[in-house]
Every structure is written in C-alpha cells, then in structure tokens.
C-alpha cells in the first residue's frame, strides 16, 4: 500500500484519465486509495476530478471521517470506505458518471448481464469470454449511509463479489488491488457497457 504522496499522484493521474474519457463531467466522480497506515486518501468534495492537484486529495479514516478539521471529503466517502471495510484486498476505488452507465442503469432492473465479451476476463476468476456476470444496479439515494446499507445487504456474506456496481441514473463504482487494476477494470466495464448501448441502438 502506498504512502500519501504516492497515492496523491495516482489519484491526480486517474482523475485526468477519467476526464479524458468524459466519465467525470462537471464535478462528478470521486477517487480513493487505501494507504499503508490503514487510512484512505480520497478526493475532496466538489472539485473537478480532471483538474486535481495534491491538495485536492485528503485523508479519512475507514469510518469515513476526515482526519483534519475543515477538510471536506467526497460526499460519497461512505461508499468508498464500505468497499475498503468489506474487501481487505481492495486498494483503490474509482467512481465515474459515463453516459453508458447512466443510460443503461436507468433502463435496468436489479442488474445488468454482461455475457460473451472477451473483456470479461478483466474480472477476477474469469478466464474466458464464455462467461456471464450480473453487474448489480442499486437505486440511487442521496442518503449515503442508507445506500451503503443496501449495497452491503446485496453483498451479504458471499465469498466472491464482483468488484463493481452501478447506481441508477448516477454512476459506477469499481475497485481493484491498486490503481492500475482499478482503472483496467473500470475501462473494461465501460467498454462492455458502451457495446451494450450500441447494440440496443441497432436492435
Ligand atoms: C456534479 S454532482 C455529482 C455528485 O453529487 C456526486 O455524485 C459525485 O460523484 C461527486 O461528488 P463529490 O462530493 O465531489 O465526490
Ligand atoms: Zn457520483
């Protein structure tokens, strides 16, 4: 796990990358990394994630509380910390608001099925395109504590959980062991969801 300075660099670079893809419009999105001391580096609330600097990344405890008075972490810090608490192997969390995620989550029920894509191999434990996963979709909620409760209820005690979910009409959360893996997974899911959207247009 990185120290704060390294995490800040990774988060700033990730914000620029998400922005290049158009996944963090306006001030949408938030990004975090688990630090070596067990705390979490996360983006401040309200800034544009494509124009972050080191000061735009602050520290919170696993309970989501800011470690420095006056620092206001992402409004969705509770979702990041929920992921870190439940999955000890999670080292980085990404949240974006792409068009495919927003449109498809509005059309979906409780999940979106991704099947037959070569890029499914980006998910842990999948070694072939001949597979299917159900990407969970949760109703959006401005009460982040209540939303995190709904997510935890769906995860239950399952040993193996897909490292991502959608919030209806809102965005996507994806995590990985570190930032490169989280980015790889997010790009894979976004690619497959773009394909799903294109396929719907053609049908
Ligand atoms: C531009 S409104 C988006 C926010 O409500 C939220 O969903 C979001 O992704 C960013 O919130 P933030 O508090 O900056 O981390
Ligand atoms: Zn959001």
Automatic annotation (TrEMBL):
InterPro entries tied to this protein: Aldolase_class_II_sugar_metab (IPR050197), Aldolase_II/adducin_N (IPR001303), Aldolase_II/adducin_N_sf (IPR036409), MethylthioRu-1-P_deHdtase_MtnB (IPR017714)
Residues at which Zn(2+) binds: 95, 97
Entry annotated with the keyword Metal-binding: yes
Note on how the cofactor is bound: Binds 1 zinc ion per subunit.
Transmembrane segments: none
Entry's Gene Ontology molecular function annotations: methylthioribulose 1-phosphate dehydratase activity
Cross-referenced Pfam families: Aldolase_II
Keyword annotations from UniProtKB, A to Z: Amino-acid biosynthesis, Lyase, Metal-binding, Methionine biosynthesis, Zinc
The protein's annotated pathway: Amino-acid biosynthesis; L-methionine biosynthesis via salvage pathway; L-methionine from S-methyl-5-thio-alpha-D-ribose 1-phosphate: step 2/6
SUPFAM superfamilies: AraD/HMP-PK domain-like
Domain Class II aldolase/adducin N-terminal positions: 9-197
Record-listed E.C. numbers: 4.2.1.109
Function, in words: Catalyzes the dehydration of methylthioribulose-1-phosphate (MTRu-1-P) into 2,3-diketo-5-methylthiopentyl-1-phosphate (DK-MTP-1-P).
UniProt similarity note: Belongs to the aldolase class II family. MtnB subfamily.
Protein name: Methylthioribulose-1-phosphate dehydratase
Organism: Belnapia arida
């Amino acid at each position: 796990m990185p120290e704060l300075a390294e995490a800040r660099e990774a988060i700033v670079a990730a914000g620029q990358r998400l922005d290049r893809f158009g996944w963090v419009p306006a001030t949408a999105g938030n990004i975090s990394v688990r630090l070596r001391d067990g705390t979490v580096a996360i983006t401040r609330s309200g800034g544009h994630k494509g124009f972050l600097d080191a000061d735009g990344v602050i520290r919170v405890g696993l309970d989501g509380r800011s470690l420095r008075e006056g620092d206001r972490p992402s409004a969705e810090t509770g979702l990041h910390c929920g992921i870190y608490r439940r999955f000890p192997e999670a080292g980085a969390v990404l949240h974006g608001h792409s068009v495919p995620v927003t449109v498809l989550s509005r059309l979906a029920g409780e999940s979106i099925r991704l099947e037959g894509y070569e890029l499914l191999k980006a998910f842990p434990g999948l070694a072939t395109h001949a597979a299917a996963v159900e990407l969970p979709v949760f109703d959006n909620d401005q009460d982040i504590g209540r939303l995190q409760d709904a997510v935890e209820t769906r995860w239950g005690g399952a040993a193996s959980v897909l490292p991502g979910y959608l919030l209806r009409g809102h965005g996507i959360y994806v995590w990985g062991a570190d930032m490169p893996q989280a980015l790889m997974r997010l790009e894979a899911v976004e690619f497959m969801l773009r394909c799903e959207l294109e396929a719907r247009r053609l049908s």
